[in-house]
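hey so i finally got around to running the thing on that chain from the lab meeting. sorry it took forever, my laptop kept dying and i had to restart like 3 times. anyway pasting the input first so we r on the same page abt which one it is
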Amino acid sequence: MGTQVGRIEKEFVFKSLIDDATPCDVHGTGKEAHCRFSQLSDERLEMVPLEGQLPGFQIGEEIRVFFYLKNNYHTFSAKLIEASPEKITVQHPRGVYKNLQRKYERVKPSEDLHVSFSLKGTKIELNFPKSERFSEVEPPQTSTTFDPKRIQELVRAFREKMSSLVSDSKIVMMRDRLPRAWEEKVIVRLGQCLWIPSTDEDFPSKDPFPDEKVITKGALIRLEEESGAQPFVITGRLGNILYEKAKKGVISELWCPVLYNEYVVGYLYIVSTGEQKNRIGKDLVEYTWQFARMLCYSLVTNGYFKAENASERRYEAPVIDMSASGILFAHNSGDLVRELLVHTDLELTMRVGKRAFKVGARVMRKFKDAETNYFGVLFLRIEPGDLAFLFEYLYGKPFDPLYEGVWEGGAPPPPLEM
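ok and heres what got predicted. didnt touch it at all, straight out
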């Protein structure tokens, strides 16, 4: 990314930004804006557009800010705590960096993304969602007539039952896709049901089940606190989620994960709307949870989780972030850590939606924290058409050949050392 500025220099930088009304480029998820710095406190930093109105930035969205100051390009990342067409406000960023040395800025993929590669007969899969909760797969005890091999009949029976109780139901599988919606991210993270008994009331304050099936409001607040949001912002955000659902006619809702060991392989969604105003009660939550276990056992019986090639072993790992020139992913496998060495060349298969393409790549760095190993991979060979597609997918704007001559944020390339 570059060189992090020290604490004293950082204070000087931000004072200069306000005093000089320094212009900056703000990059969000698929959007950009030209702004200037307007106000500063010990905890907050405010920016306003240079002209017109800002695009649709959202509270909680992570943005990247680039600016030129004292003959140097700088950048920092921060999360929005306020957003409107007239101004945006972020928490005071922890780190500011100069001497930028990345070809393209890194972002978190916002849509379905699947990346895989083979290494010595081992197939590594990226971007299968992993939960904090472990659920061992066991034969269900709820039905003596249940045949796990007849999965289509199982699904049909679920849909028929739901059709008489709720307005709509669906089964969503998470294979080869990332959680996108807020609800998906919550159930994937916690491995529990997101249950809204009534949009006119609130999220459950207590879990009525002894085995922790339901996400409580306290758990949702703790998740939001991880982003650094203030309590009043969290309360407003959760209330707004219920309000928006009620505006769409939602009376009651349930998102139930399908757990396979530590992975969320899919989820069941049921909803009651104005057309059918039945609240989703505790008994229906229990039924849906048990059906999810039956479905998972049936998937195992039908070989859903087996590797495509018996000689290959499957690994699953989250993509931390990526750019148009590389990708950072994490993994905890000791075998992979031993085999995947710095300067190892790979051929990546990347799939975004229905489009798949090959990318030649090389592992450029490995590092770890207390629990996780990280791999930074540089793209070496990519077809021009695939690069243009990947660029627009990541940054929300068409690729321009002029970008080849600059580094992230418009900075010039770093000097070549001979």
